[in-house]
Amino acid sequence: MSSSAGLVVFTLIVSWVFAGAAAAAALESAGRPRRSLLRALGDGSDDLPDVALELNGSDFDAVLRQSPARFAVVEFFAHWCPACRNYKPHYEKVARLFNGANAVHPGIVVMTRVDCAHKMNSKLCDRFSVDHYPRLLWGHPRKFASGAWSPKQEQNDILPIDDGQTAEHEKFENENTLPHNASDPEQVARAIYDIEEATAGAFDIILEHKMIKPDTEAPFIKFLQLISAHHPSKRCRRGSAEILVNFDDVWPLDSLSTSAKDMDSPHDMSMLKNFQICGKEVPRGYWIFCHGSKKDTRGFSCGLWVLIHSLSVRVRDEESYLAFNTICDFIHNFFVCEECRRHFYKMCSSVTTPFNTTRDLALWFWSTHNRVNDRLMKTEKALGTGDPKFPKMRWPPKQLCPSCYRSPGRINNGTLLVDWNKDEVFSFLVRYYGKTLVSSYKDENRSSGGNGVSVSDDVATSTNAVAVPVGAALGIALASCAFGALACFWRAQQKNRKQRKRTDLHP
Ligand SMILES: Cc1cc2nc3c(=O)[nH]c(=O)nc-3n(C[C@H](O)[C@H](O)[C@H](O)COP(=O)(O)OP(=O)(O)OC[C@H]3O[C@@H](n4cnc5c(N)ncnc54)[C@H](O)[C@@H]3O)c2cc1C
């Protein structure tokens, strides 16, 4: 942003703050206050300590009730959310105007944040209907104390700050030549544990945020079907199949008879919470392959990518389009990083011709991930928010897959152009996310074979029946591990169930 534009925005913010409620109301009536205002003061990438107050479920009400400030801004975020990480320097830059020892305008606005990824803050984040990250709200501090916010409420003294964008995106211009931090291909063998962690984490988030509603039930079930057939971890295949099989009992309400309100009933949530999607030892609470060298980098979103790629190489040709839609819908409905899910879904929506092969599917996710990498490369560099040991790059680097490159990469106008050999890329993906990924997997939970016995052969291809007590037909579908067959069976079962319900209601 140019300095004059920055000055205009700065003046806007300061006049908004100084003119108080009238100016704020005028700003609001002209449209919702925009996050770009909070971004406009520079990138804040210097290494100053954080001044926005980090609040939690136990001190939130008390701190805000006692605050002498005229306004409070609360950023609800998750420490694992990459878009929140990129947003933080902008937020801190503004916070420095109002909070901390060197504040230029102390006491007028109290800038705070709440990490919704911590269990102790779940109820607080629920109270403010946080359904994506980051969610920014502002209002009088005392309105927050014991107050609540919901997008459905028309009259509320607490207002959202939202333009849906959390970072400026500019075209990627790579100043380096080919990336040089190639990793050892065998390292991905440790990622299997992170995929389990990400799967359990995603399930936890879905339950914590009560995200299963009449309109999201189908995408959730489809994803369970996909992972119960093709998850690279046997533990997660077993766990997801168990949830699937018992879903009707633990979640007896269906879209025919259920209102969203009923779906939020704590009783139902607690029943689903009894299930551990990847067994009782997951989540473990740490990352291995996806472990960042800097606080809050990598982790969950890295694990999610690796899960997506590992699924993409495991589905069969005939399942590829169903798997594509299932993954896209899952990210769209359940990935609470707002920017990530929106961008990703846009890319999904641009696909108009159905995939016919595993190759097309795997290459689509690979190139889409590279497009995300391209976009983030510049942002992370500008804001200093990336992980210095794991810079974003066009992947795989040449050191990891020399044959994937037809010729050395070329720099054109600062942009790295690679002439990919897509057959080689696909073979590499199949090896990397297929056999290598599960080559040292251990399933301590295994019913036979004892503790810590390697079952790599067992998980290299997901063609084994899952040991859960299921009805014969579902058992066959699971045993064949055909995701398509499973989806088909599920639809038939649902139809029968609805039919039975109708008959019960109108005998
Ligand atoms: C669906 C989705 C959409 C996202 N969208 C955004 C967004 O819009 N904005 C944002 O700030 N963050 C977004 N993220 C998060 C972001 O992409 C990274 O996950 C995060 O910054 C952590 O990066 P990382 O260094 O761990 O590597 P990641 O990008 O998470 O990659 C994980 C691992 O996958 C491998 N890999 C890298 N590139 C490829 C590829 N092209 N094909 C196959 N494997 C590859 C590498 O081994 C890498 O270590 C998104 C995440 C997901 C899952």
TrEMBL record:
Sorted alphabetically, the Gene Ontology cellular component annotations on this record are:
extracellular space; Golgi membrane
- Please state the Enzyme Commission number of this protein: 1.8.3.2
Report keywords, A-Z: Disulfide bond, FAD, Flavoprotein, Glycoprotein, Membrane, Oxidoreductase, Redox-active center, Secreted, Signal, Transmembrane, Transmembrane helix
SUPFAM superfamilies for the chain: FAD-dependent thiol oxidase, Thioredoxin-like
Q: Can you name one GO molecular function term for this protein?
A: flavin-dependent sulfhydryl oxidase activity
| Limits of the Thioredoxin domain | 26-197
Taxonomy, superkingdom:
Eukaryota
Which residue ranges run through the membrane?
Answer: 466-492
Compartment list: Secreted
GO BP of this protein? protein folding
Q: The ERV/ALR sulfhydryl oxidase domain covers which part of the protein?
A: 293-395
Signal peptide coordinates: 1-24
The protein's matches in PROSITE patterns, at most eight in alphabetical order, are given as: ERV_ALR (PS51324), THIOREDOXIN_1 (PS00194), THIOREDOXIN_2 (PS51352)
What's this protein's name? Sulfhydryl oxidase
Does the keyword Oxidoreductase feature in the UniProt annotation? Answer: yes
